[in-house]
Design a protein that fits this description.
By secondary structure, the protein is an alpha/beta fold. The chain has 2 domains: 172 residues, 3-Layer(aba) Sandwich (Rossmann fold), CATH 3.40.50; 95 residues, 2-Layer Sandwich (Pantoate--beta-alanine Ligase, Chain: A,domain 2), CATH 3.30.1300. 40% of the residues lie in helices and 20% in strands. Strand 5, helix 8 and strand 6 form a beta-alpha-beta unit. It is globular.
Amino acid sequence: MQVVTTIEGLKAELRKLRVEGKSIGLVPTMGALHAGHASLVRRSVAENGATAVSVFVNPTQFNDKNDLQHYPRTLGADCKLLETLGADLVFAPAPEEVYPEPDTRRFSYPPIDTVMEGAHRPGHFNGVCQIVSKLFLWVEPDNAYFGEKDFQQIAVVRAMVNDLRLPVTICPCPIVREESGLALSSRNALLTPAEKVTAANIFRVLKDSQTFAAGHTVAETHDYVVNSLNAISGLEVEYYQIVDDTTLQPVDSWTAASGIVGCITVYCGSQPVRLIDNIRYR
């Protein structure tokens, strides 16, 4: 496995792989890798001739400087894990390599990027599109793998790919969870053991809401989830929206769309950690 830190080094290694006729899978990450990331890498290794993994904490998608500063960084451990998983190439650049000057490009895909995370984290998806478009330009992957925990992000990236007409297939991968049900996230490392127990209630309530929804309206189901979680000490719901899984617009009935997903963001702990999750109703 090769580890490169420059764009030219990345392209040189990719040329070697392409000369061998290998298809390229890309797994974009911000590091602090866990079993969820590992599942993406394993799938890419199984479906492509070679797999490249980017490890880069992208500053342009953080609207909270404190969040950026405290985001976990574990490059040494990440590389050890990736080698065991069969990755061929790791791209771990410094911020000045990716952004030698400010990226002034603006990406806008309403209404997909203006609700939920888009409404609560201004500029977040613009930053996501900036870094992912750069990675797609430099790597030119055949396939790119993203976890469904970031459900809205996948929809935004798909919109960008269609807009720019990029020849890459976006491959969503199922959420991987701890035994407690807590969705795996790099941010989980910021939780104390007791807070992780508390955070497991997020998925428990979401699962319970699937049963609840069978006999109640969308509005009642929304309130059930929000009220149940806010009643638990240490949890505070930022938003919960039940949406069409294609347009990401809120629905008002269970027959309003063929696919319906509930997307949630919850703050957990005394030094609040922002956690996201989702559940499928239809």
